[in-house]
Write a structure and sequence with these properties.
Elements lengths: L3 E4 L2 E4 L4 E7 L7 E8 L5 E7 L6 E3 L7 E6 L4 E6 L8 E9 L12 E2 L3 E6 L1
Parallel strand pairs: 2-11
Antiparallel strand pairs: 1-3, 3-8, 4-5, 4-9, 5-6, 7-8, 9-10, 9-11
């Protein structure tokens, strides 16, 4: 099992940057695809970004591409989401999720383990 726990959320102003971290337990972290999702108030959970277990392959939602960057450090069992040029519409609870092996995926149902989430609020 690779159980994720998010951190780094907070209240920022539009245009600011924020970096989320996801620390995962388990000795097999390097074999897991890691994804970020978010749920805004009154909306369904949506895909944000994903990174392959080697870190060589990434994908992003159209709404964040060019502003957000996902990365991982397998030596630290941690995946990051660097968020730049934040907008009020980025306000959401951000979740980290793990998926054993396989290819990267934007489908939440493909993921095995989820963190409790971290709140990001962007004021205008």
């Amino acid at each position: 099992q690779v159980l994720p726990v998010e951190s780094g959320g907070g209240l920022v102003q539009a245009g600011d940057s924020l970096r989320l971290s996801c620390a995962a337990s388990g000795r097999t972290f390097s074999t897991y695809v890691m994804g970020w999702f978010r749920r805004a108030p009154g909306k369904e959970r949506e895909f944000v970004a994903v990174i392959s277990w080697t870190g060589s392959n990434t994908a992003y939602a159209d709404s964040v591409r060019g502003r957000f960057t996902i990365s991982r450090d397998n030596a630290k069992n941690t995946v990051y989401l660097q968020m730049n040029s934040l907008k009020p519409e980025d306000t959401a609870v951000y979740y980290c999720a793990s998926k054993r092996y396989g290819t990267i995926s934007s489908k939440s149902n493909d993921y095995d383990y989820w963190g409790p989430g971290t709140q990001v609020t962007v004021s205008s």
